[in-house]
Amino acid sequence: MESVLIDVEPEKEALVPHPGPDEETAQLSREILDRADERLFAAHRGSSGSLEAALSVDGSGEIP
After folding, report:
1. What is the pLDDT of residues 2-45, one digit of tens each?
2. Is position 28 within any domain?
3. How far apart are the first and last CA of the chain?
4. Domain coverage including residue 34
């Protein structure tokens, strides 16, 4: 995928409406993120002692 640099003038960007979600959509989003936090991310928390250990590579070039 190619990145594209777009010059955005802050003054013109301020004129563009950026509506927020309605309350139902916001609540649904919070629920989805909470479930993901419990189910997906909890297993990965605390599994590494340090950033160095998380980024270390064993002798075969594989991440342990």
Report:
1. 788 888 899 999 999 989 999 999 999 999 999 988 888 777 77
2. yes
3. 29
4. 10-56
Residue 30 to residue 37: CA distance in whole angstroms: 10
Given a contact cutoff of 8 angstroms between Cβ atoms, the answer to whether 27 and 35 are in contact is no
SS3 per residue for 37-52: HHHHHHHHCCCCCCHH
Distance CA 11, CA 55 (A): 42
Query: What is the C-alpha separation between 27 and 52, in angstroms, rounded?
Result: 37
Domain count, the chain: 1
Residue 62 belongs to some domain of the structure: no
**Threshold 0.85, pTM exceeds:** no
What are the tokens at 15? 């004129």
